[in-house]
Each structure stands twice: as structure tokens, then as C-alpha cells.
């Protein structure tokens, strides 16, 4: 009948996970260091962005797998506690807020809040972007500090020349 879903289509659409369930599945698999299970939550052309990784913008399953290899090697234990979530009306995009407690391979514990903003299509993650409440490290942070220093110097010089 026109306008009605077939029984198999209706069944398929009801078996798709919600975005929140998919994100929970990804986090659980990450904490278990189960690379195959993490990758199973992502679409083949997904983009995963996280400034903690050597390649902060991972495009496609191969890049994401390489990022996971790096993360699993350097981390003794991942810990994610979801403290809030916000989903769009259509359920295809949203955010989860987490308290993270990770233990590095060296034994050092890292605790910090983090937010993942994500989108899904056809039951798979197509984008996940991580946000932390601190600035970038490394060369990016050095460049920011130099820019801030130059700005202060210019202001001081401009202010010192006035009568």
C-alpha cells in the first residue's frame, strides 16, 4: 500500500539504535579497549575530531583505527561517566557531557570534563567532535602565548607613548 512501510522496513527502522545508545556503545567499547566494537559504531566515512590525538581530525575508519591504536597503547584505562546528554528533535545529532578519569600507561591519572558533539545517519556515527575546557597544547599553545605577549607589548608601547 502506498504511504505504508513494509513490515521488514518497519522492523529495520525500529532496530536502529538511538544516538545516545550508539554513543554509550562507543564509550563502553573504548573503556574495554575493543577496537572492532568502537569501529562498528562509525560509518565508513565518519570524521572523529579530538585534540588529544596526534592526528586530531581522523577521517574514515582507517584514520580512526590508527587513532585508537595510539590511544590504547598509551592508556592503561579509559573512564567515562556521562553526566548529561542533549539530543536534537530528530534524534540524529546531540551532545553528551562526561567526567573523564583516564589512567595513562605510566600510571598517571587524568581527570577532566569533556563534551562529545555527534551526529548519526542510518544508525552509525558520521561525526564525533570532542571538546575540553582548556586550550590547545604544544606548538599551537606556544603560538597563542607569543601572540598574547606581542599584543600586551603593543598595548604597553602604545600606552607608554601617550601623554
From TrEMBL:
Matching InterPro entries: NTF2-like_dom_sf, SnoaL-like
A Pfam match: SnoaL_2
Domain SnoaL-like, residue spans: 24-127
Gene3D superfamilies linked to this entry: 3.10.450.50
Domain of life: Bacteria
Protein name stated in the entry: Nuclear transport factor 2 family protein
Species per Swiss-Prot/TrEMBL record: Tessaracoccus antarcticus
Amino acid at each position: 500500500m502506498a504511504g505504508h512501510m513494509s513490515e521488514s522496513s518497519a522492523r529495520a527502522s525500529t532496530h536502529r539504535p538511538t544516538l545516545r545508545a550508539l554513543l554509550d556503545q562507543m564509550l563502553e567499547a573504548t573503556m574495554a579497549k575493543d577496537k572492532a566494537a568502537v569501529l562498528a559504531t562509525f560509518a565508513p566515512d565518519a570524521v572523529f575530531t579530538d585534540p588529544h590525538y596526534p592526528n586530531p581530525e581522523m577521517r574514515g575508519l582507517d584514520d580512526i583505527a590508527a587513532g585508537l591504536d595510539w590511544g590504547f597503547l598509551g592508556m592503561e584505562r579509559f573512564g567515562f561517566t556521562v553526566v548529561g546528554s542533549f539530543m536534537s528533535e530528530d534524534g540524529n545529532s546531540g551532545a553528551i557531557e562526561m567526567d573523564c578519569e583516564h589512567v595513562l600507561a605510566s600510571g598517571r591519572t587524568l581527570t577532566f570534563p569533556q563534551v562529545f558533539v555527534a551526529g548519526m545517519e542510518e544508525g552509525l556515527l558520521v561525526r564525533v567532535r570532542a571538546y575540553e575546557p582548556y586550550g590547545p597544547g604544544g606548538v599551537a599553545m606556544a603560538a597563542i602565548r607569543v601572540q598574547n605577549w606581542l599584543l600586551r607589548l603593543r598595548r604597553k608601547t602604545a600606552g607608554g607613548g601617550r601623554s
